[in-house]
Amino acid sequence: MKNEDKLHRIDRALEAMSGVESDCTLCPRKCRVDRRKEATGVCQTGVQARVSHALLHFGEEPVLSGHADLSRSDQARGRPSRGSGTIFLSGCNLKCLFCQNYQLSWLNEGSPASDPGLAGMMLDLQEQGALNINLVSPTHAVLPILRALRIAYARGLSIPLVYNSNGYDSPAVIGRLDGIIDIYLPDIKYRSPDISKKYSGAADYFENAGPAVREMSLQQPVLELDGEGAARKGLIIRHLVIPGCVEDSLSVLRWIKTNLSPFIGLSLMSQYHPCYKAPGEIRRPLTEDEYRKVTGLALELGFENLFIQPEHFLPGDHLVPDFAKKEPFPWK
Q1: In a domain, 76, yes or no
Q2: Which residues contact 199 (CB under 8 A, 6 or more apart)?
Q3: How many domains does the chain have?
Q4: What is the DSSP letter of 197?
Q5: Any idea what the Cα angle at residue 302 is, between residues 298 and 305, rounded to 5°?
């Protein structure tokens, strides 16, 4: 889609959501706070976005950070894999007790970013060779993101836009992003309201995530790759397997298979690590047997675009970032 078309859609989305900042209902929490007065709700966010880091990220799914073939072609040219141009937004509307990014989601560490400043981050990442602009935790910051995109597209932003959310989105807001977002990258964390209430304080998680992700699937039903294996459009659903919650994971997979396009991507993550406020029963690593049960069903159900993390990820904590550092990821 041409930038002119995206700019028109952004203007329509902003017009449709005008007034929301004074009575915020952007997400299922519906805190109804006046964000203009810094009366922040669950997400702890006012009118401006807050940003922790904007960097090239090499730890996302290969089609986002750099496919193996793409990495080889880059190396042949004497340069590293290009990476995903990732902007980590501070604050969160979900507040999972075990969150690996708790420094951002709970502690709200980061700095305010003006709309032109956020646009500048996107353009700088494009200039560095990023494959995409990857907005992490965008749900509560969708208005400043749209305002920044209006600036960035007018100044030549042209790489795909990734909406990397926890899944606890408003289906109505997702509907207004049609034609703006190129790649949706949501979690579906739970189906059980009891589990989602216990670990994320949101008994209505799936009640909202299900319809929101279904809307994403309608907008982007096919995961499309370019000639070098990098994603250009589509939907990739992430599911983190949590210790002791295998049956809920299996239920999530069955729902995805029954209700969404067969041409989407599915990413099953083994990287669970008990962080921050994780309660005792999940303050342990995921076992290989637990992860294999979930991946086994995914293979049985015939997911074609399936991303599986190596089993040696299970016992370690090398994927846990530290956002107090300039380079928060251990592999940097």
Answers
A1: no
A2: 96, 97, 98, 190, 242, 279, 282
A3: 1
A4: H
A5: 80
